Amino acid sequence: MTDTATQGNIRIRVGHSPDADDAFMFYGLAKDCFDVGPYRFEHELVDIETLNRRAFKGELELTALSLHAYAYLSDRYMICSCGASMGDNYGPMVVARGNVTREQLAGKTIAIPGTLTTAYLSCRMWLKDFEHVVVPFDQVLDVVEHGTYEGKKIDAGLVIHEGQLTYQSQNLHLVVDLGKWWMEQTGLPLPLGANGIRKDLGPDVIRDVNKYLYLSIKHGLEHRKSALDYALGWGRGLERDKADTFVGMYVNDWTLDFGDRGREAVRQLLKRGYESGVITKLVEPEFVDPPTDV
Predict the structure, then answer these.
(1) Could you give the residue ranges of the DSSP H alpha helices within the chain?
(2) What are phi and psi of 58, to 5 degrees?
């Protein structure tokens, strides 16, 4: 087991995105709302593509991961049974300045939030032939509205996080909701993100950390007002009602446990991503067992 003990505590470095749903999920841990035994959780708020890249070095014991990135990290991380971000007939969106069809976007340039995001994977499965430019996720809407990024023409943008609720305020038009497209293709929710825990921590620490993550999510759902107050600090200007809507989209029963259907959705995502040629190897996901002592 890796030695993570510091001054008598077991340090668990946690990485998650600086957005309202992840902040809501980790509220219970961040604010010490319950006893975590010998563990000390240290939080790092970083955009998801950066977390995906850092995971290749195993820098964090517990980290948010795009399930696209997990396809290349299964030797180092397991998927926690809780902490999923599932798009249940909704998900990342492709938006443009005008009414555009999929056929019209073929060969055009789409601003994306990162090549390891599940948004990018699902977009590649929806439309194989397009150019891409990586843009910070919180700048995608502005880039599409202006039509250029660093001198390159931008025809559309791939939107994640709260931009799914705000794109119309910038007079942008929806081309496709990839969560709806995925549901039509598979009959399953689109599994976007998960929490990965490093395998070298050993079974006891893995079990404990998974349990405390579950308790944090459960605490937020049971103390919604306080957790939402905390999460609003990462809402990037979202009004409270929209922040509540956004949190509800991605922190819900799916987040407490993938369940059989959620696990199958992950398998299908990895399988279809491989069959489409976007993912370069076929991976069978490995999940931590759900906690039984909560």
Answers:
(1) 20-30, 48-55, 67-70, 102-105, 118-126, 140-146, 163-166, 178-186, 203-222, 224-231, 240-250, 253-256, 259-275
(2) 65, 35
User: At 223, which amino acid appears?
Assistant: H
For position 236, what pLDDT does the model report?
A: 63
Alpha-helical runs (H) found in 187-291: 203-222, 224-231, 240-250, 253-256, 259-275
Q: What is the number of other CB atoms lying within 10 angstroms of the CB of residue 114?
A: 25
Q: pLDDT tens across 75-100, in order?
A: 999 999 999 999 999 999 999 999 99
- pLDDT, position 1: 39
pTM, two decimal places: 0.91
> Cα Rg for the chain, rounded, in angstroms?
19
Strands 190-198 and 62-66: antiparallel
Q: 82: phi > 0 → left, psi -120 to 50 → alpha, else beta; which?
A: beta
Q: How do residues 184-230 score in pLDDT, each as one tens digit?
A: 999 999 999 999 999 999 999 999 999 999 999 999 999 999 999 99
Catalytic residue among 16, 43, 132, 161: 161
Among 3.40.190.10, 3.60.15.10, 3.30.160.20, 2.60.40.10, what is the CATH number of 93-186? 3.40.190.10
> Closest Cα to residue 208, out of 65, 80, 76, 63?
80
Has 161 been annotated as catalytic?
A: yes
Residue 249 near residue 90 (C-beta atoms within 8 A): yes
Euclidean distance between CA atoms 259 and 273, whole angstroms: 21
pLDDT less than 70: residues of the chain: 1-8, 163, 235-238
Looking at the domain that runs over 5-86+190-275, which CATH code has it been given?
Answer: 3.40.190.10
Instruction: Measure the CA–CA gap between 178 and 91, rounded to whole angstroms.
Output: 6
